[in-house]
Structure formats: structure tokens, C-alpha cells
Specification:
Elements lengths: L1 H14 L13 E6 L4 H18 L7 E6 H6 L1 H6 L5 E3 L7 H9 L6 E3 L25 E5 L1 E2 L10 H5 L3 E2 L2 H13 L4 E5 L19 H10 L6 E5 L8 H9 L6 E3 L7 H7 L5 H14 L4 E8 L6 H14 L3 E6 L17 H24 L5 E9 L7 E5 L4 E4 L9 E5 L2 E2 L3 E4 L18
Parallel strand pairs: 1-2, 2-3, 3-4, 5-8, 8-9, 10-11, 11-12, 15-18
Antiparallel strand pairs: 6-7, 13-14, 13-16, 14-15, 17-18
Helix pairs in contact: 7-8, 9-11, 12-13
Length: 450
Amino acid sequence: MNERDSEALAALLIQKGFSLASSEIDADIVLFNTCSVRDTAEQKAIGKITHLANQLKRKPNKVFLGFIGCMAQAYGNNLLTRIPELDLVVGTHQLHRIPDYLMDLISNKTNKICDTAEETDCEPNLDGHLLAESSGAQKVSAFVNIMQGCNQHCSFCIVPSTRGRERCRPIDQIVTEVSDLAKQGIKEVTLLGQIVTSYGRREFPYIDGKSPFVQLLEQINAIPEIQRIRFTAPHPKGYDQDLIDCYARLQKLCESAHIPVQSGSNRILKLMKRGYTIERFIDIINSLKKIKPEIGLITDLIVGFPGETDQDFEDTISLVKTVQFDSVFAFKFSPRQGTPAASMPDQVPQMVKEERLARLQAVINEVATRRYSAMVGKSVEVLVEGPSRKNPSRLEGRTRCNKIVVFDPAHHQPGQIVNLKITHATATTLYSISENLTPKHQNIKLLNVT
């Protein structure tokens, strides 16, 4: 979501006459788009901007510094006090106003600006895209926001405070954006929302038993140039039968599902206010596997939630082994200001959280290694995205099941869909390469899948 917000804001600034700098040191304006989901993200942002501010003191010209996004929304004017070098603090609801605020700062109309006011609608003017990679190559995939905010109020999550209540864009507006992207060469879109499967449930009617989200998927599936559709992040409560059926009847909907479960313990899920049981979660997984046996499964897990016992943690380990996820984003519980979980009794000691996370990641890696290794020798359909991020002499793409594949360039071009035979695998990546280009360290087990 932050990546998409940054891209949309950059596109808006370019439209207003600004240009992208090659680095923060060369820039006249530096904006930090921040995240508050975990404390580590906040500390990194504070450390980064403090370090940069010290570097910029040596520059003869004024460099404007801005903190935007979730941390700005959460802390507001306190950031201007904590970081004196800051000129601009803008929350998640007012990103579309940043070009005007920057002009006010540049023209000396004002000295400092802080805006954390809330919007009742989806923010206007933030549907622009940057359709070229940093290398200048054409992008083939794009993120598309379909909604903002969240009404779920999980006991550990600060998102409803920083992003506000759900606000949904009209279906026709989203379809027009995707159609325009398709005409500009985009082959794959990923629909974004804090809980993307909640899209339009309060604003738009069900038609023939289909939720507004399913109606949206159907309309995007009908756009000829679009080859693949993905979405993130859903909620288990959103996987009604109409959505599950989409995996069977919508050809462009990729057989990949990122469904955050957060814990394998029903007791902890209740404390988290997640609104489902492990039994219901497994029912969803089994229904998806029945339709698409090779579906790629991704989830999020939190260890060390307040009150988590050894048995609760063992339940989480058991869930990972039962479901056999392809990938897991696993994190230590991080208390967030103002959330119920931050003041719950029986907070788990940091050392225990670290030990549990290390053990969980080892199991995650073991499962992922087995899942990826099983792909060796098989042929997979890959959308060519461009040069590999770690080895530009090779190309990179993704399977429909959302597995990264690194392969020989041959005559492939970004945007093509090609069939490749998998020759090697790690716990996170598939390879389709000739024997004399065997990836180094192919047998090393990676402990940090996240």
C-alpha cells in the first residue's frame, strides 16, 4: 500500500512540474512515506531522516524534508518537535495536497506545515502511475488502490487509526483506471485494500448473490489486454463462496492467495478480535485447494501476542505444517499506541518472542524448501517482468502461483508469458537456467523467509 501511495504521489508531483531526483542527497525535497504497523519500521524511519538531516546540513541550499503517511497521521505535530529539521508532516488522508503544500514552503508563504485531517471519501487525484522502471524499461505489472481504510479493529492493529474508516472507489472508476493501464502495456494488476475483500459491502449492492468485490473482479477479467489479476490483502471473513468460485471461473484470476491468519490458536485469535476460527480458516484453504490444487498460499503470523502460551505457539507451528504455506510473513508482536493489545496483561518477554520467531522461521523455511523443491522438473507459466533484481544478466518473472522465477534471457521480453522448465530451487526462488549457470549456494537454507 505504501509503495502504491508513493508511486501515485510521485506521479502527481511530476504532473505539477516537479521531477524525480537520482538520490536523496541530490534532491531539493525529500519525502519519507512511513509505516506504523511495527515499531521497527518507525525506528528505521526516524533514524533515516535524522541521519539524512545531518548530511544535508553541509549543503548550501535549503532542502525541504517531509514525513508523510502513517507515522505522520499517528504523531502529527509531535514529529515537528521531535525532528526540528522537518518542514512538512502530512497524514494518510491528505497526500493529494502535498504539491500545494510544497509550493507554499518553497515560496516562503509558510514555515512549517502539519495536516492530519481526515477525509470521508477516497482521496482524489491519487490514481497516477509511473509506468517505467528505474532502468527506463516498461513496467508490466501495476498496483491499483480500490479502497482506503479499515473497519476491522483487530486488537493489535493501528491501521484503523492511521488509515481511517473504509472508503471505497466506484467500480466504474477502477475499471477505467485498469483499462487505461492495459492500453499502456500493463499485463497484470494487483488490487489493493487494507481488507480488500470488504470492498463495497456497505456502499454497493450484491447482484445475483455476488459481492461488489466479485463484481469488480468480473469486470476486470473482461478487459482484453489484462492477462493476470491478483489482490491483497484479504481477510478470511471475506472468503465467501462467491469469491472462492471465482478461482474456478475467472481465467485471469491467478491461483494465489495471501490470506493473513495471524495465529494458529483459537484462543489467541479471539483475543486478537479476528472474527474466525482455525477450523474455518482451514475450511477456506481446503475449498481453494479443491478448485486449484497447485494454488500458492501466503499468510501473515504474529508470535508473542500478549498471553500467548507455549501451547498457543505450538498450535501456530502445527498450522504451518498442516497448511503447507509457500511463504509466510512472520513477525514478533509489536505494541502499538492506543491499541487494546498494547495494554493487555501477560505481555510476552522479548527473549521469548525472539526464540519463538526463530523456531517458527525454521519451520517455515523447511516447508517452503520442500514446496519449492517439488517444482523442479516441472514446466510453469511465467510473466516476464524484467532483469533479475540480484543478477541483471538474467530475467525475472512470476508464476501464476506467485513464485519468483529467475531464468536465462534467451529471446524473452518483458510482458511476454512464457513456459519454463524449473531446474533448481531455493526456499524462496525457482530457477530455469542452463547447467553452466547453476546458481551459487543453491542448497543453502534461508532462515529469513520474511
